[in-house]
UniProtKB/TrEMBL annotation:
It comes from Eiseniibacteriota bacterium. It comes from the Bacteria. Belongs to the MgtC/SapB family. It holds the Pfam family MgtC. This is MgtC/SapB family protein. PANTHER family: MAGNESIUM TRANSPORTER YHID-RELATED, PROTEIN MGTC. Residues 17-149 form the MgtC/SapB/SrpB/YhiD N-terminal domain. The keyword Transmembrane applies. It is a multi-pass membrane protein. The chain crosses the membrane at residues 12-30, 42-60, 80-97, 102-122, 128-147. Keywords: Cell membrane, Membrane, Transmembrane, Transmembrane helix. It is found in: Cell membrane.
Length: 235
C-alpha cells in the first residue's frame, strides 16, 4: 500500500493518529509542568489508545455491515466508546491520593478522563470539536487556576476539646465566643460527658472562609483552665 492509500485508510486514520498525541500532549504538558505523576506520556497514551479502539471499531463495523448476509446484525462502535469511558475510571482513580486531610489528583484524574473522551472524538473524525474542547480545557487549567487561588475556599472542620467536667459550661461559652471572634461560624456543638472520668468532650463543628488559625487557637485553648486535650479534624 502506498502512502496516499494509507492516508485515506479508515477515513483518514493517519491524521487521527497524528492529531491525538498533539492535542493530548498539550494537556499532558500542563500536568507535567505541575509535577503530577500522570503527565505527558500517560495522557498521550490514553488518547492514542482510545483513538485506535474507535478506528478499529468503526472499521470492523463497516466491514461487518458489508460482509454480513443478515441485515439485522449490526456492530455498534458506540459500545466501544462506552467501554472506554467506563474503563478509564480505574486509571483516573489511581491518580487520586489522600494524605490526611489533603486530597490530591482530582484535576489530573479529570484530565485523564478528558483525553480518553478526546480520543473517542478524534477517532470519530470530529476534528473541530477535538481542537476546540482541548483549547477550552487548557483555558480551565491555566486561567482558572489563577482565579481559584484568589478565591478563599470554604472549609468545614471540627474542634474537639476535652475539659474537666467542672469547667465545662464556662469553657463552652468562652470557646464559642472566641471562635466567633476569629470569623468562623459554629454550626453545631456536641457534648460527650464521662462522669466516671470526670471530663466532658466538646465538639465544635465550624465553617470558615479561608484559613483557620488552628495553631494559634490550639495554643490559646490549651492554656485555658481544665483543658486536657485539643484536636482538630477535617469534616
Amino acid at each position: 500500500m502506498d502512502f496516499a492509500g494509507f492516508v485515506s485508510l479508515e477515513g483518514g486514520a493517519l491524521w487521527k493518529l497524528l492529531l491525538a498525541p498533539v492535542l493530548a500532549g498539550m494537556v499532558g504538558l500542563e500536568r507535567e509542568w505541575h509535577g503530577r505523576a500522570a503527565g505527558l506520556r500517560t495522557h498521550v497514551l490514553v488518547c492514542l489508545g482510545s483513538t485506535i479502539l474507535i478506528i478499529a471499531a468503526r472499521s470492523a463495523g463497516e466491514a461487518f455491515a458489508v460482509d454480513s448476509l443478515d441485515a439485522r446484525l449490526v456492530l455498534d462502535p458506540n459500545r466501544i466508546a462506552a467501554g472506554i469511558v467506563t474503563g478509564i475510571g480505574f486509571l483516573g482513580a489511581g491518580a487520586i491520593l489522600r494524605t490526611g486531610d489533603l486530597i490530591r489528583g482530582l484535576t489530573t484524574a479529570a484530565c485523564v478522563w478528558f483525553v480518553a473522551a478526546l480520543g473517542i472524538v478524534i477517532g470519530n473524525g470530529l476534528y473541530v470539536l477535538a481542537v476546540v474542547s482541548t483549547l477550552l480545557v487548557l483555558l480551565v487549567l491555566i486561567v482558572f487556576d489563577v482565579v481559584e487561588q484568589k478565591i478563599p475556599s470554604l472549609s468545614y472542620r471540627s474542634l474537639s476539646v476535652r475539659v474537666a467536667l467542672s469547667d465545662g459550661e464556662a469553657f463552652q461559652a468562652w470557646c464559642s465566643s472566641r471562635l466567633v471572634s476569629t470569623g468562623v461560624r459554629i454550626q453545631d456543638v456536641l457534648r460527650q460527658v464521662d462522669n466516671a472520668e470526670g471530663f466532658i468532650e466538646l465538639i465544635f463543628r465550624i465553617r470558615a472562609r479561608g484559613i483557620v488559625p488552628g495553631k494559634d487557637l490550639t495554643k490559646e485553648i490549651s492554656e485555658q483552665p481544665g483543658v486536657q486535650q485539643v484536636r482538630w479534624e477535617q469534616d
